[in-house]
Amino acid sequence: MSNALHILYLCMNKFMLLCMTALCSVAACNRQSSTESSSSDSSVAYRDIEAGTLVNRGDSVSLALHIPDGIGYDSIVYRIDEKPYRTVTDSTPVWLSTADMAMGSKLIAAEVYKGGQSERANTNIVVVASKMPEQYAFSVVNTYPHDEHAYTQGLEYHDGFLYESTGQRGQSTLRKVELTTGKVVQKVDLPAKYFGEGMTFVDDKIIQLTWQEGVGFVYNKANFSKIGEFPYQASKEGWGLCYDGKRLIKSDGTNRLYFLNKDTYKEEGFVEVYNDKGPVDNLNELEYIDGKLYANIYYSDNIVIIDPSTGEIEAELNLIGLLPQKDVKEDTNVLNGIAYDHQGKRLFVTGKNWDKLFEIKMLER
């Protein structure tokens, strides 16, 4: 055999071998697909709910099951996040109301029982806000001076004064400030290793967070002497903090808000924050106003207004252009700091290293 013929022969054999391998692979895939399909057809499954389906709070969801022919059953038990929801004895679809649910992912399980044995189907829905947030603009009522070297992290109005927590390691402080002059009348410096964050009042105490150091501080309100501290738990970082009269509410930069015991500072639950499209992260400085939670969104000019019982964002306050461009300096950072005068019904806002603090009025769009 010539070299040319020999090479041609080898090439033809190699080609035929590749073709046979490909055909075997296709057959194997077909068998696997057929097996998977058969397995799926023979299993209990939800008919209409794909995992991760977004559901507006208040809507109802049909929990219709596909139960293959030949599978007898005595009862079907539906569970929401492993808590019993409803037990039925037939396959008539059960309707799940989301009207009383908090935001976030909910595990939906159905167990089909027969003679002590069961087969389970799982899926999940994600409960989001019931509608688009209402939109608010603003008008400026008054403008006050603010220390442009204050990297504002927490802000409160109390007994005629502003109280402010500032950040940056080596520069973090807790301070009492005159509203009209911006003058610091009382101050304590944090040790250089700490990065100050949000703060609030509980009775005669001031509670202040640190960022990544995993600890919060407790001060005597009158003289700023430190009287205690507490460790963080599931919320690993400290961002914003406020008090609703019963419990502390803490943000950690995610879309979660944690509820802390006002006396022990132990976490006793959380709520996840969503608008109508999904989770809203970077929740920062917090203020509790007339039953609602106001939160700065870090790196944005927006404040969101949240129902703290459900985590639903009900409104957004757009503060673009609040600080005039002519007043923006090299060190000027983002909007942060919300304080409310509960007696005078005045809303104050500022930002990190801003040289002004504003009293504003919310305007419906």
Structure description:
This protein has two domains: 45-128, Immunoglobulin-like (Sandwich), CATH 2.60.40.10; 134-364, Methylamine Dehydrogenase, Chain H. The protein is 11% helix and 50% strand. The protein has one helix and 29 strands. It has an eight-stranded mixed beta sheet with strand order 23-24-25-26-10-29-28-27, with no helix packed on it. The radius of gyration is 30 Å and the shape is elongated. It starts with a helix and ends with a strand.
Describe the protein's topology.
Elements: H1 3-41, E1 45-46, E2 53-56, E3 60-63, E4 65-66, E5 75-80, E6 83-88, E7 94-97, E8 104-114, E9 117-128, E10 134-145, E11 152-158, E12 161-166, E13 173-178, E14 184-189, E15 196-202, E16 205-210, E17 215-220, E18 226-231, E19 241-243, E20 247-251, E21 256-261, E22 267-272, E23 283-289, E24 292-297, E25 302-307, E26 312-318, E27 335-341, E28 346-351, E29 356-364
CATH homologous superfamily grouping of the largest domain: YVTN repeat-like/Quinoprotein amine dehydrogenase
Distance from first to last alpha carbon: 90 Å
What CATH calls the topology of the largest domain is: Methylamine Dehydrogenase, Chain H
Helix content: 10-25%
Shape: elongated
Q: Return residue spans where pLDDT drops below 50 for at least 5 consecutive residues.
A: 1-40
Largest sheet: 8 strands, mixed
Number of strands: 29
The SSE string, one letter per element, is HEEEEEEEEEEEEEEEEEEEEEEEEEEEEE
User: If helices are DSSP runs of H or I spanning 4 or more residues, what is the number of helices?
Assistant: 1
Regarding CATH, which class of the largest domain? Mainly Beta
Q: What would you say the CATH architecture of the largest domain is?
A: 7 Propeller
Strand order of the biggest β-sheet = 23-24-25-26-10-29-28-27
Radius of gyration using CA atoms only: 30 Å
- Quick check: average pLDDT? 87
Helix/strand class: mainly beta
Q: Roughly what fraction of the amino acids lie in strands?
A: over 45%
